Amino acid sequence: MGFKCGIVGLPNVGKSTLFNALTRTAAAQAQNYPFCTIEPNEGEVGVPDERLDIIAGIGKSARIVPTRLTFVDIAGLVRGASKGEGLGNKFLANIREVDAIAHVVRCFEDGNITHVEGRIDPVADAETINTELMLADLESLEKRHDSLIKKARGNDKEAIQTLDLVNRALEVLRDGKPARAADVPEDQQRAFQRLNLLTSKPVLYVCNVEEPAASTGNEWSKKVEKLAANEGAQSVVISASIEAELAQLEDIERLEYLQSLGLESAGLDQVIRAGYDLLNLITFFTVGPKEARAWTIPKGSRAPRAAAAIHTDFERGFIRAQTIDYNDFLDCNGEQGARDAGKARDEGKDYVVCDGDIILFKFAV
Questions:
Q1: What whole-number distance in Å separates Cα of residue 44 and Cα of residue 3?
Q2: Which residues are 106's β-sheet partners?
Q3: Tens digit of pLDDT for each residue in 238-249?
């Protein structure tokens, strides 16, 4: 089960530097000229979760395996991308393939790094990209609109439902708002997502600031934070240059470097965690002497779907799920203690898995 978060932004805002730091590689070129990234780069990163280390210690696990999230470094966009300017068509196609968007905006001044529009204004930068995405969505929906009307007049039930969703999206897009602002009933959310609109994807604004502002942000990042709040999006502050340095250090050196900068944790941890939350994902754990492992599932998943994250056979032959609450696992010092205390529950197919559950699946093939 893969989940992808696309890193987007104007050229020269720090996208590829951020991607390289996230994946601790030099896979993405990071140079001072537009369209340095042409083909999207992909990299998997472990999702930081201190709970996994704790349960691994209790379970005396020989190996620790975090859950993972895929980040995709996508080519920089310019004004007119919805009409094919720059690498517009390619850029938009790449965005359609991701589940969420990490939108990097430049919140620093540096005369050595050119800005594609010759000025530092992260809110305007964000609006440039948002406008291009909305224009692309408008064009896509308007092309479908007439044919849906014809089918709906013929009492095609699927067309009637789709037309309603398209109209809801068109209403907000024509008002200059992203498709995710549309009023869509809960039971039609999945159908709405199948429209595959660029602006229906959840967004995280990543404010790339200068090193001294990494812990506090600056005047530009505060404006982006306000923009995000107005859109119902999220925002985080990082310094890509600091993260690039951290990516080259061993764990002990990383901690010392962070302390020297007055930072409690790496900004990348915030980006990864926020991306994870943005996708509405939760984590459950399996633990034993061989390994403690974290698994990713969408929030609201029932036990059989969680079992499928491990192996499809687990879902097909699902019998029950022995489930221990994370806090109970800690309080009872592990699985056996939880069993003895009556804290290990046998849950059936209708059980909705909670974040932090420790689960042992019983199945038959």
A1: 10
A2: 208
A3: 998 888 888 788
What is the C-alpha separation between 285 and 64, in angstroms, rounded?
11
The reported pLDDT for the residue numbered 359 is 97
Q: What is the pLDDT of residues 97-139, one digit of tens each?
A: 898 899 999 998 876 565 555 678 999 989 988 888 899 899 9
Contacts 24+ apart (CB under 8 A), 141-148: 141/166, 141/169, 141/170, 141/173, 141/195, 141/197, 142/170, 145/170
- How many percent of the chain have pLDDT more than 70? 88
pLDDT of residue 33: 35
The SS3 of residue 226 is helix
Kindly give the residue spans of alpha helices, DSSP state H, lying in the chain: 15-23, 50-59, 88-96, 122-153, 157-174, 189-193, 219-231, 240-246, 251-260, 267-278, 303-310, 312-316, 326-331, 335-340
DSSP, res 294:
E
Burial of 67 (0-12, 13-18, 19+ CB in 10 A): buried
DSSP 262: T
